[in-house]
Specification:
A: alpha/beta, two-stranded antiparallel sheet, 24% strand, globular, B: alpha/beta, eight-stranded mixed beta sheet
Amino acid sequence: MALQEQALPLPGIAPDRTGDYRTDHLLVAKMVEPGSRVLDVGCGDGELLQLLESRGIDGRGIELSREGVNRCVAKGLAVVQGDADTDLVNYPDDAFDYVILSQTLQATRQPRVVLENLLRIGRRAIVSFPNFGFWKMRLQLLIGGHMPRTENLPATWYDTANIHFCTIKDFVELCDAINVKMERAVALDLYGRPVPLNLPWWVWNMFGEQGVFLLSRGK
Amino acid sequence: MAELKSIVSPAIQMEDRAHEADHPSSLVAKFGADQPLKLDCGVDLAPFQIAYQTYGELNADRSNAILICQALTLDQHVANIHPLTGKPGWWDIMVGPGLPIDTEKYFVICSNVIGGCMGSTGPASTNPATGKPWGLDFPIITIPDMVRAQAMLLDRLGIETLLCVIGGSMGGMQVLQWTAAYPERVFSAMPVACSTRHSAQNIAFHELGRQAIMADPDWCRGRYFEQGMLPHRGLAVARMAGHITYLSDAALHRKFGRRMQDRELPTFSFDADFQVESYLRYQGSSFVERFDANSYLYLTRAMDYFDIAADHGGVLAKAFAGIKTRFCVVSFTSDWLFPTSESRALVHALNASSARVSFAEIETDRGHDAFLLDVPEFFDISRAFLQSAGKARGLKSGG
């Protein structure tokens, strides 16, 4: 699994920015209550963590790539080198208020186990992932007859680290199956901006390039 | 084997070293009979003294003090010329004005450990009861004993809380002991290339070194000073064995390969034909110049006994329960003496205690000794960690 490759921004398109920060990061940061403790799993170069810390949030990170970790530590962030699949088990229950997993779920070996761990370690989880039900994906498979490749997910099927793609609909079904409550859901367009629509799931599943979900335990 | 030659005449060394042990070229804190050092072995050591160096200035609210903990074969001479060897300080690329441990911002302290031979009380010091060197009459000391002595030194200096405690190898063990024993006195901690317990393999290497010293007839059962001898061959062999563990296969190969030393063909003898042999012999003999053989026995023993979890019911996380100290754990990829897996186990325990911890593994082929060498990534991390700790503690100018 290569967290760094998958870390936001998705390769190819420069993400939309609002001031110093990325729009999708600001969206995630807004979901986090001030004064809480946050673990960012797959924190890349620590941009989201810096945003959170600037808002008085106690942020910690896990990052797979050594380069990413060292860049974070050099920024004074509390980041450890580790792997979402194997290292989450080492964290105690209820250690954090929020655990964030950005653009990484699809690259884990056991997404279901990872998701369960997120909500064991944190009271809430914020999960984002590329939506395989996005219309461009569907069109490539339907018309082109090949595995989809987009600006944001340019790797070929034999090179990609993304071994567990899913659609927004699939993810909602997984949450139901493991009794995870969905508190908020936002679909983002290609540039990481919220899809400004209040429409049924199937529309999001068609037009959201990625989904961002605020989750909590039980129903 | 071909003789290991000492590069300094033993008579001169012995005089200088004996003098340095009791009257060091450093600042000295003396503790009298009313202030014994309570050792883990049950002995109250009194009187005793601690030799230390400082760099930079303590600020008005005494919040910018950094303690550097020495590794096994080092001493308190971090960033000044060594009084015996005349060589630069062992960390002068890390500690100084504008360097990662910036002496324009921080007040830096490094003391010689208890059991050492550069002015803190140890087996080379004079036993006040006999007027002779302690030798093997010196009580066995532990890493917690070293830290207890450092805490007494800080009390003497009027420093309640350290901005940071930093150390590599045995120094890292002291850092961890500081956080376990005095968490409220340590604002941040940087244990580098170390472990929460000494592994069986490392104990084995230490035993090899100790046996080499004790097998030298000039060791005289530890009474070599009185006999006018020095076990320089035994200590040099111990140093050679130790030094190999501080390097790596790749580093040795890159530095020496199979190259010959000042010759083109093998001599068909046991001379140092290979450069690597010549290098090791030099390392061995130059070590004898500045280090005491009995000290080597005591300090290696202290490391062997180190096991923080064992002192906390076998559960490492309990040692750090509820700790507020900010940690930055660093390991090096090619370090096989204190491999990354040991640092990772420490990080897991700190995570389980919800401690604020950073952990970086730095890629280098230079082995355990990388923490003493010019590794820019390590410098960047150290500088940034100290700056963020200083900021969190409210030091001015981000320092």
